[in-house]
Please model this.
Amino acid sequence: MTTSSPTETVNHCATHPDVESELQCGRCEKYICPRCMVQTPVGARCRECARMRRLPMYTLGPVYTARVVGAALALGVAFGLLWGLLVPQVALFGFFMLFIGMFAGYGMANALDWAGGRKRGVIVQASAIGGIVVAYLVRNVVADGQPIVPNDVWGLIFVAIAAVTAWNRLR
Model:
C-alpha cells in the first residue's frame, strides 16, 4: 500500500503489484485485479478462495471411463454389424439417413449416459463419436470389404449427423 497524498490511498493487486485496484476478495479481503478475480455465486473472490473445481456431474473416474469406452466400442461394433448385414447399401435410403443418423446419435448418447452413471463431459462425448465412427467402419468392412468406401456421401452424412446429435445430447 502506497500513499500518493495524505488523504488518498492507492491499493495494488496482491498478485500483480503494478496494477492498482479497489476490488477486494469477498473472503480474505486481499486486493485483486480483474485478471485475478473469479466471479462466484457469492461475489468476487481471489483464485485461492474461489477453489474452482469441476461439478461432480463432469468428473469421470477410471471405472466410469472404462465403462463408457467399452460400451461405445461394443455398441459401435454391434450397430456396425447390424447396419452392414441388414442395410448394405446406404444410398437406397438417401435422405432418410439424416433421420436415421439423428436416431443413432441419440441412442448412442443415451446408452453411454447410462453406462457412465449419468456423467457428462468431453470423455463421454468423444467416446460416443468414436463409437459412431467404429460403427461406420465395421459397416463398411461387412458390406464392402474395406473400411473406407469411396463416394459414400450418405454414409459420411450419417456419421456427421449422428456425431453432432450425440455430442449435443451429452453436453
Observations:
- The mean pLDDT is 87.
